[in-house]
């Protein structure tokens, strides 16, 4: 079977000295331990250890060969979004990262593809950068699920999504900057509890606000990590919509009726979860996503789908490759 992994990340081997350039602090730094291992530091504190798979295209391609991945679509690690910074700083970082991403693809641009990053705190700048990147060879854009206190129903963000639809830029929405970290200081709980909740919040922000009613159906949008909590709690949302007018105030149709407006990836790690995800979303709305090369990602990419006894061969092929090929226009 052909495999397209549409959710993978990169992190450059080094970053420009933006702290000196902009006379500001808190920029991520990469400190190398050896040729294959490094740490990401923020304000001198460890954020995450990484390996050379983040920045070494040959290592990435070797892993793809080992696992039978035909195409991988990579995007920057969300800690690099920089939405809290002045727009000129965030744009400088985004433009540099976007050019670096295309460089990472050059060893085999038929197999390595990239999503761009944009400064979502300034919608005009974000629209201009995604247009530049799509013209330069990126296959879509990754954005965070919120910008400060603004959820996806913010009118500026809706304007950006409309622009993406207009120029044919598929959108991957990735959770980041998780809620209530002070209540989850240990055990990676922000990633295990808050991250799925962040994704559910972002999907419901588009549905319950009526944003999907204003956005064109040509918009291609995918939510990472199997849609977070959303697919498993949609019955609760429908029930609330039916019985509470404050839930349906801006949403004219049953929330579950909007599930044909977006896609999710397959990163759910359990056969029962995958079966429910496919039943809920439909086989045409799930795409293979691994979260490579991080430890919370699927380590044998595609194995959950390929080995699933409850999915037929045609469904597996749709999830493993065909849906992503259509979503990202890879057949053209």
Automatic annotation (TrEMBL):
Broadest EC class assigned to this enzyme: lyase
InterPro entries, per the entry: ACMSD (IPR032465), Amidohydro-rel (IPR006680), Metal_Hydrolase (IPR032466)
Tagged with keyword Thylakoid: no
This protein's record includes keyword Lyase: yes
All residue ranges annotated as the Amidohydrolase-related domain in the record: 4-330
Pfam families: Amidohydro_2
This enzyme's EC code(s): 4.1.1.45
A GO biological-process term: secondary metabolic process
Molecular function terms, GO-annotated: aminocarboxymuconate-semialdehyde decarboxylase activity; hydrolase activity; metal ion binding
Pathway named in the protein's UniProt entry: Secondary metabolite metabolism; quinolate metabolism
Annotated family: Belongs to the metallo-dependent hydrolases superfamily. ACMSD family.
Subunit structure as annotated in this protein's UniProt entry: Monomer.
Name the record gives this protein: 2-amino-3-carboxymuconate-6-semialdehyde decarboxylase
């Amino acid at each position: 079977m052909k495999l397209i992994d549409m959710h993978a990340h990169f992190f450059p081997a080094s970053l420009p000295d933006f702290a000196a350039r902009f006379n500001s602090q808190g920029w991520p730094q990469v400190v190398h331990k050896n040729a294959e291992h490094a740490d990401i530091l923020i304000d001198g504190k460890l954020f995450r250890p990484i390996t050379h798979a983040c920045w070494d295209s040959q290592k990435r391609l070797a892993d793809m060969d080992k696992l039978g991945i035909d195409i991988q679509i990579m995007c920057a690690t969300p800690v690099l979004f920089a939405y809290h910074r002045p727009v000129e700083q965030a744009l400088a970082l985004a433009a540099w990262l976007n050019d670096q991403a295309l460089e990472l693809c050059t060893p085999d641009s038929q197999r390595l593809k990239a999503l761009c990053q944009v400064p979502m705190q300034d919608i005009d700048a974000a629209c201009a950068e995604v247009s530049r990147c799509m013209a330069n060879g990126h296959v879509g854009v990754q954005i965070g699920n919120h910008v400060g206190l603004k959820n996806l129903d913010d009118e500026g963000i809706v304007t950006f999504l409309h622009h993406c639809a207009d120029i044919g830029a598929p959108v991957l929405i990735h959770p980041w900057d998780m809620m209530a970290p002070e209540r989850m200081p240990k055990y990676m709980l922000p990633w295990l509890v808050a991250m799925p909740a962040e994704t559910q919040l972002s999907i419901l922000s588009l549905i319950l606000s009526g944003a999907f009613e204003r956005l064109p159906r040509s918009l291609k949008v995918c939510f990472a990590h199997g849609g977070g909590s959303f697919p498993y709690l949609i019955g609760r949302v429908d029930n609330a919509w039916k019985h509470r007018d404050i839930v349906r105030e801006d949403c004219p149709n049953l929330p579950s009726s909007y599930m044909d407006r977006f896609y999710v990836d397959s990163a759910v790690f359990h056969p029962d979860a995958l079966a429910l995800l496919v039943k809920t979303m439909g086989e045409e709305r799930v795409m293979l996503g691994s979260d490579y090369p991080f430890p919370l990602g699927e380590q044998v990419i595609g194995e959950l789908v390929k080995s699933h006894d409850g999915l037929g061969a045609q469904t597996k092929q749709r999830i493993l490759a065909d849906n992503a090929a259509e979503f990202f226009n890879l057949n053209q």
